[in-house]
Amino acid sequence: MKRSGRTIMQRLKDLSYLPSYIGRARYFRGHGVHSPYIYAIVRQVFMRRGLYDESCTLYTELVERGVAKRRAEELTNLVWHCGYKSWSIDVMGRSDIIFATLDTQWSDLEQYADYARGIGATLCIMNPYNNRERWQTCCRIIDNHPSTTVDNRAYLLVFNNHLPKQRFCL
Question: Which residues contact 149 (CB under 8 A, 6 or more apart)?
Fold first, then answer.
């Protein structure tokens, strides 16, 4: 008998996500993040509503590429917070941060990661959980990366700076 419109099997399937929820619970609102750099990003970027800077060319460009408005807002604030002067979308260009949207094939993501590491840029991979191949490629990037990575479910940030090797799942 279905009271809520969902069968028992559908309800039990939701329990398969429980380990992920428990693993991410310690990072809720920045608690458990022991890196001052990442803590500042969580508190001042991910938890902020509204844009820091009113000139929102990056915001409009990301929204036009199919990124959700809230995520585009967070990424625009990240660029402002980190002091990045240049950015590129779906192009391996000389910039401070490179965005790889769904238009970038999963097979090219490792080349993007190597290129970003070579020039010292931050790489932002949009929708890392989109399909199995994309997520497996992102896992290889995380495992081989010498610096900090932040998995925000909607995007994966791969920092190439002075930070030690750490992985944050927000």
Answer: 141, 142, 156, 157, 158, 159, 166, 167, 168
